[in-house]
Each structure stands twice: as C-alpha cells, then as structure tokens.
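I am still getting used to backbone structure tokens and would like to learn alongside you. Label the sequence line and the structure token line clearly, so we can match residues to local backbone shapes. Would you write everything just below, so we can both look at the same thing?
***
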Amino acid sequence: MKITSNESAENYLESILILSKKLPVVRSIDIATDLEFSKASVSVAMKNLREKKYIEVSDAGFITLTESGLKIATMIYERHTLLTDWLVRLGVDATVAAEDACRMEHVISAESFAAIKEFIK
C-alpha cells in the first residue's frame, strides 16, 4: 500500500503525540524507533513538518508539536483509538484491528467518523 505524504505526516505527528505522553522529551531517534524508520527518513520528515509549522525543534533536538500540529495529531489519535476499540469489540484480533485502524484513520471522512463515533456511544 502506498502511503501519501499527508498520511505519512499524520503518522509522524501522531507518533510525536504518543511519545510525548510517555517520555520527558521527544527526539528524532525516539520517532525512528517508534515507527521503525531510518534516522535519515525521520530527519527529512522533521524538516518538512518544521517548514509546515507543525513542530518546533529546540537547539537540543527536542521536538514539540505546535498548536496546528497538536490539533492534527489529536484528531488522528482519536480516530486510531476509537476505530481500534470498535474493531476489537466487533471481534477483530487486536493486532489486526490496530493495523486496520491505522490505515482507516487517514482516509475516513469527518462525516463517517462522526457517525461511527455517535453509533458507538
């Protein structure tokens, strides 16, 4: 499956959000380890995210989400967790559910996601 640059950016932002909840600081190496990507790939992605003003990188290399980056990361993370939980409740294996949710979270429309969210309540 081909990953679009938008999907890739969303995955990076989501990873930064999740790591920031677990670690005192987030660095490129943490993201590379989390996503199982090369340090070079992460470096290029961080440059792109910084240019789009989704992240800030301190002189020490610590990565933080900007307000716009946090907004996207939070939306993707909510979609991921809700879709994963929903699929598991439908009887899908947890690993498969997480993998499927990761793909679905990027392509589902806001309308469809809102309908699923409301239905699950």
Notes: The radius of gyration is 15 Å.
